[in-house]
Amino acid sequence: MLAHLMKYKELMYFLVHKELRIRYRNSLFGFFWTLLEPLGLMVIYTVVFGYLVNLNKGLPEGAYPLYVLAGLIPWTFFNNSVRKGTKALSGNASLIKKVYFPREIFPLTMLISNLVNFIPAFALVLVMAMVMNQPIHGDQLALLPGMILLQAFFTLGVALLVSVLNVYYRDVEFIVNLLMRAWMYLCPIIYPMSRLYSRDTDPVVQQLADLYWLNPMAVIISLYHGIFFPEQGVPAHPAVPGLWIIYTILVTIILFFAAWYLFRKMNRRVGEVI
Amino acid sequence: MEAIVVDKLTKHFRRAYDKTLKGFFISLVKGEKRYKEFTALNNVSFKVNKGESYAIIGKNGAGKSTLFKVLSGIIHPDSGSVKINGKVAPLIELGAGLSRDLTGAENIRLNCAIFGLDRKRIEEVYPKIVEFSELEEFIHTPVKFYSSGMKARLGFSIAIHIDADIILIDEVLAVGDKDFKKKCYAKMEEIRDSGKTLVIVSHSLKPLRKICDRALILERGQVVDIGEINEMIDKYQDEKKTNNKKKKGA
Ligand SMILES: Nc1ncnc2c1ncn2[C@@H]1O[C@H](COP(=O)(O)OP(=O)(O)O)[C@@H](O)[C@H]1O
Ligand SMILES: [Mg+2]
């Protein structure tokens, strides 16, 4: 399935390179500049939600900024890939109308360039944890490549879908932007996931807490959290301990193949409706 | 040996009334049709031999560009089949395959990569493309600042240098200046003589007589006639004259 894309590796390299060059402008400073948004958000969330609203309950003393960043960096990877992925086809209309090549290359290169951004950014989270003397759990850290792979496939599935839908219906972009906002609050980023189960939480929330893990992004973000905060990792289901992780892997596989199939199908008219 | 075999090709376009989800849901609720259909190509069949130069002539809206888009895989036909033997370089309408925000140089590399050239080959053909286009001065300017003539130059130069076996040229020379046009026509003859296949759409019919061997007349998506180039051009012009007379008479 991905094999026929190998013929186009020069093209993919060109597109990823272009995307990164625009973002970094060929400098290390450019890389830090891309971190400005998550770092800025970390400061804002720490002040607003850490101190004013006290969402930090359940986390070790002073660990809230690290917790926020450890969730925010993977979220930014997802968020940017999906938002930019929405425009991956429609933004290249002048090319798509005039030449043919596999169009899944556009969302795919968008994902790869965001992945290239994400990996050093996450390394920075590890550095921050060391500086803050927060223990890093090696057994969880060893799973990091798997987590990234899982997230990458899930993200690509979503990006494929929204990119082709946005060609047919131009308001998909607005809806995606709105949904991404809601989606972020449904992930454990600004609040520790243990709040769902804490005794002073609304009993209704406690009862429905299991539904929370039907959101694959909540599971994925918690996997990253588990590296630093074992008690904030994905909770074990009483019957099947790894249930939420297995569920997320399955959803990712199904979503990816469904998205690929739909992309292929809708791609047939992309050349004329774009 | 044929380079292109088109058999009973038909293409309908949907003209959507409203290209938004909102529009989609409104017409869903109202139960009305979301688009009207329009036949752009109707049962088109023809063959182009390897090494042949072929012209497609027809009025605006006849379906010439649509045919080229189907040949190059940009648009899927509804029925019928297209067989292509070799690599196709499409040069469709103005600004063919150029990304507005990229510079001329970046567009050259992008297009070469799209057509499967490896890095070594790209570096080989890059200077040739720049030289032929005569755009050295503007090569690092984003294409959105190019005039349509400059875009045509760049597009044509790329298309003839990407090692294609079949080159489709659609009206791109309509905007170039006289000298460049002359150079392009000379190049087309050279390409034809080198054994490559050319398919040309052009509104200036005179140069076609010199370059092409055969022609197809297309009218409202249907093939009117196929034959020797001079015969076809004469027939097309005669028809145009009688049509004009009829209009004047009425
Ligand atoms: N993407 C499209 N969607 C809907 N209609 C189209 C599309 N492209 C072309 N058409 C219609 O198809 C007809 C043929 O267009 P075209 O092939 O561009 O004509 P030509 O190149 O011969 O002037 C025109 O009536 C045009 O409006
Ligand atoms: Mg046309």
Key features?
heterodimer, A: 274 residues, mainly alpha, 12 helices, B: 250 residues, alpha/beta, Rossmann fold, 6-stranded mixed beta sheet, 3-stranded antiparallel beta sheet, 8 helices, 9 strands, binds adenosine-5'-diphosphate, binds magnesium ion, cell inner membrane (chain A), transmembrane (chain A), ABC-type transporter activity (chain A), transmembrane helix (chain A)
Offer a concise description of the structure.
The complex is a heterodimer of chains A (274) and B (250). With 274 residues, chain A is mainly alpha-helical.
Provide a descriptive summary of the structure in words:
- Chain B: This is ABC-2 type transport system ATP-binding protein/lipopolysaccharide transport system ATP-binding protein.
- Chain B: It comes from Melghirimyces profundicolus.
- The complex is a heterodimer of chains A (274) and B (250).
- Chain A has 274 residues and is mainly alpha-helical.
- Helix content of chain A is 70%, strand content 0%.
- Chain A contains twelve helices and no strands.
- In chain A, helix 3 packs across helix 10 (216-226).
- The longest helix of chain A is centred in the N-terminal third of the chain and has 27 residues, at 64-90.
- Chain A is globular.
- Chain B is built from eight helices and nine strands.
- Chain B has helices at 21-30, 64-71, 104-114, 119-133, 148-159, 178-193, 205-211, 229-249, and strands at 2-16, 35-49, 53-57, 79-84, 88-92, 166-170, 197-201, 214-219, 222-228.
- Chains A and B meet through helix 1, helix 4 and helix 12 of A and strand 1, helix 1 and helix 3 of B.
- Bound molecules: adenosine-5'-diphosphate and magnesium ion (MG).
